[in-house]
Design a protein that fits this description.
Blueprint (H helix, E strand, L loop, with lengths): L1 H5 L4 E5 L8 H11 L4 E6 L14 E4 L4 H8 L1
Parallel strand pairs: 1-2, 2-3
């Protein structure tokens, strides 16, 4: 969140499972509330989400994924 406050970030790519008190979906919710224009891509190898599960309008891609597939989502 500190990086968002001091930088213009166009795309957030996060895993659902993260160390600490906030998981990836919590991060998505926090970023969406403050920076609604930021593109969000969520990934996981343990959890499967559909686009309907992404209430924020972000995208989900399961791991493993190729760099080409990820770049296509970002483009």
């Amino acid at each position: 969140m500190v990086l968002f406050k001091i930088n213009q970030i166009d795309t957030l790519f996060t895993d659902i499972d993260m160390p600490g008190s906030m998981d990836g979906l919590g991060l998505v919710k926090a970023v969406r509330a403050r920076w609604p224009a930021t593109r969000i891509i969520v990934t996981s190898d343990a959890v499967r989400l559909s686009h309907r599960d992404m209430e924020s309008g972000g995208d989900f891609i399961s791991k493993p994924t190729s760099n080409t597939e990820l770049l296509k989502m970002m483009g």
